[in-house]
Amino acid sequence: MLLFIAILDTFKLLLKTLSTNSGFWNPLVWCSVIVIAFLIVYSIRSFGNKEYKKDNEQVKTFLSGNPEYEKEQMHVKSSNVYWGFTETLKWVYNLLNKMHTGNVSDYVLWFVVTMAIFFILIGVMI
Amino acid sequence: MNLPTFEFTPALVVAIPLLGAFLTPLVSRINDKLRNIFVIIIMGLTGFFVFLLAYDVLAKGIKVYVFGANTADTIQSLENGLPLLRILFEVDAMSVLMAGISVILGFVAVIYSWSFMKENTGLDKYYTLFLLMIAGMLGMELTGDMFNFFVFLEITSIASCALIAFWTNKGKAVDAAFKYIVISAIGALFILFAVALLYSQYNALNIAVLGSMIQYTFLDKIALILLIVALLMKAGIVPMHMWLPDAYSRAPSSVTVALIGATLASLYGVLRVCFTLYGNSLSNICNNLNINVHSMLGTLLILLAIITIILGVIMALRQINFKRLIAFAAIAELGYMFLGIGTGLTVLGNPELAVYGMTALKGGIFHIINDALDVGLLFLVAGAIYYATRENSLNRMGGLARNLKYTTVFFLIGLLAVSGMPPMNGFASKILIYESTYQLSPILSIIAILCSILLLAVFVKVFYSAFMGPAQPKFKDVKEVPKSMLIAMGIITCIIIFIGLFPQFVINTVVTPAAEALVNFGGEKGFYINEIIESFTLGGV
After folding, report:
1. pLDDT exceeds cutoff 80 at B477
2. pLDDT of residue B188
3. Distances from the Cα of B523 to the Cαs of A106, B159, B272, B482, B520, in angstroms?
4. Which residue of B has its CA nearest to A86?
5. B311 — contact with chain A (CB < 8 Å)?
6. Per residue in B118-131, pLDDT tens?
7. Chain A residue with the nearest C-alpha to that of B354
8. CA-nearest residue of chain A to B464?
9. Mind telling me how many Å the CA of B61 is from chain A's nearest CA?
């Protein structure tokens, strides 16, 4: 009986909702909603066209009439992903690249600079 | 449930890996497999004693262990006016939480190493250094003495440096280790200088004793700054973070996972200095002079945290080396922790916002656990991909989900967790940080959320580049990684899912006691300084 109560208490503790003072978060409720949403989507999908044919022209890759490249060439490389973002922020990256020299004496310099700021703000001002 | 408690548990937590470290070369001479089993048993035993210690501390409050003498002798010495110079461990809920994180990472890393490192030579040295590093980390987290903190920090740093350079055939690994030891040595020297400043004034090295005596003189201010800045550098906060991507990306993945623990041990040092060592004196200064030093310190930490988050994410977005990318993401995650901790430090003194300060601190501490697990899992996945393909560059990967099915699932879980996507653990800690930071300044919260979205974008890029896309002919023979690596990743994944599904349980059980131990709000179980001073009957000193 005592063991049963202990297990029950543990379950109660496990199922508690996280309170953030201005909101709450319960992952189990969230998961239940997702499962229900998935079931709804799945049921809608089941109304779709069932006469899809495999291995015919409609499954071939169409690149505006151009021939398909080798598989290896078709993969967009990591450095090209978010190209627009990195190109727009090129000035930021140039600045950051200058900061990351890879030289250990520069690393120590940043340490000294940070310490100086702390000295000014805490050691002198207060 | 009543678990047995042993008087020597705090000592055993450090002694077992230390003893294991020196026995490993001997066992290694018998058989390699036996050595691997021996190291796993040592880590398992250490974990068992950390668990026992945690149970003891959470149930009964702070545990003090004096080395080389019993508590009665120590009290006698104190009553005779002798300074408290004994080596002693003072373990509260915060220490034990950090020890738990270190031991989980260490345990997972040794299981992972079984297959990951099997083709390397010199594994007796590898495991010896590994156990030394774990012993050093645990010592940093359990000690109640400033000088011993420095000693354990040095042990951790030296062992970590040697492990970063373990692949000596790769010049960049040696270069990264050199940078790491330079940074560590400078940081440790400044910490030693700060300890000397405190000792010269108060004739004490014990954190609790010092915490009760510090007057916040000019020398104390210098010691505070030296300690915080040196530990922040060791924790990898921007702009002193540059050693971290080098070290994390060049070390073997199993070492990187343990290095996360070492970094977090330094973060723990910052917490101890801000809240325990200087906690009382800063609060008194606030009351007497109406100057809020806590607020100033907290604001500085918030500022550094925001810079750390932004820079970490922006730099991660551009990386093409998988491990370097995760290292920058880890820097951003450190920013989230410091955002929570800084907010806590800033508003805890404000009666109107104190509740949110506590929530922020809990969020920061909770994020320490989550970051260690999430980033650790991602590093293990990166190691698994390297093991299977011998590739680190994302530009040369693609379509690996076909070959590495389990690894792909582990990566997806790590991706969702580190980006703070519900229902993973990262979301639970980040929501605590967002909502409490919002009360201090909405802009902080907005920046944090936007950067979290960017972090998701970063890992979506990785997922696409490494796992999606057409099958690459050069990877047609790639097979799933060995079982020991899958088990290691699986253990972390299970913990991530458990914490993600039951966050309140973890917060109630370990995070809240840790936060209360830090801010002395914990009533009979949390008063770190008072409890330890009482245990030594130090009133007359």
Report:
1. yes
2. 96
3. 46, 39, 18, 49, 7
4. B318
5. yes
6. 999 999 999 999 99
7. A21
8. A78
9. 21
Residues 7-36 of A with CB under 8 A from B: 13-23, 25, 27-28, 30-31
Give the start-to-end residue ranges of the domains of chain B.
Answer: 1-287+504-541, 292-501
How many angstroms away from the CA of B242 is the closest CA of chain A? 6
> Are residues A6 and B315, on separate chains, in Cβ contact within 8 Å?
no
pLDDT digits (tens, 9 = 90+) for B508-525: 999 999 999 888 644 444
Instruction: Print burial letters for A37-46: b (CB count within 10 Å at least 16), e (below 16).
Output: eeeeeeeeee
Bridge partners of residue A63, in order along the sequence: A66
Per residue in B426-453, pLDDT tens?
999 999 999 999 999 999 999 999 999 9
CA of B178 vs chain A CAs: smallest distance (Å): 9
Chain A from 46 to 105: CB within 8 A of any B CB? 71-72, 74-79, 81-82, 85-86, 89, 92-93, 96, 99-100, 102, 104
Measure CB to CB from residue B182 to each of A30, A96, A104 and give the nearest one: A104
For residue A119, tell me if it sits in a domain. no
Q: Return the minimum-mean-pLDDT range out of B152-166, B361-375, B459-473.
A: B459-473
Contact B470 A72 (CB under 8 A): yes
The string of pLDDT tens digits covering residues A65-78 is 888 777 777 788 88
Q: Is the pLDDT of residue B244 over 80?
A: yes
Residue A95 has pLDDT above 60, yes or no: yes
Contact of B320 with chain A, judged by CB distance below 8 Å, is answered with yes
**Whole-structure pTM value:** 0.92
- Asked if the Cβ–Cβ distance from B505 to A106 is below 8 Å, we say no
A115 touches chain B (CB under 8 A): yes
Q: How many CB atoms lie within 10 A of CB B55?
A: 17
The shortest CB-CB distance from B503 to any of A18, A75, A114 is to: A18
Residues B98, B52, B154, CA angle at the centre, nearest 5°?
40
> B221 to chain A, minimum CA–CA distance in Å?
6
Q: Distance (Å, rounded) from C-alpha B83 to C-alpha B74? A: 10
Q: Is residue A81 part of a domain?
A: no
Residue B401 CB neighbour total at 10 angstroms: 18
The pLDDT assigned to A73 comes to: 75
Total of domains in chain A: 1
Q: Which residue has the higher pLDDT, B324 or B295?
A: B324
Instruction: Mention every residue, 6+ apart, whose C-beta is less than 8 A from residue A117.
Output: none
Looking at residue A75, what is its pLDDT? 82
- DSSP for B335-400 reads HHHHHHHHHHHHHTT-TTTHHHHHHHHHHHHHHHHHHHHHHHHHHHHHHHHHHHH---BGGG---G
Inside any domain, residue A60: no
Q: Which residue in B194, B201, B351 sits closest to B273, CA to CA?
A: B194
pLDDT of residue B387: 96
- Does the structure show a pLDDT above 80 at B216? yes
Q: CA torsion sign, B36 to B40 to B43 to B46?
A: negative
Higher pLDDT, B530 or A92: A92
Q: Does B397 touch chain A (CB under 8 A)?
A: yes
- The C-alpha R_g of chain B, in whole angstroms, comes to 22
Any domain includes A19: yes
pLDDT of residue B451: 96
Q: Which domain holds residue A33?
A: 2-44
* B473 has a chain A CB within 8 A of its CB: yes
Q: What interface predicted TM-score (ipTM) does this complex get?
A: 0.90
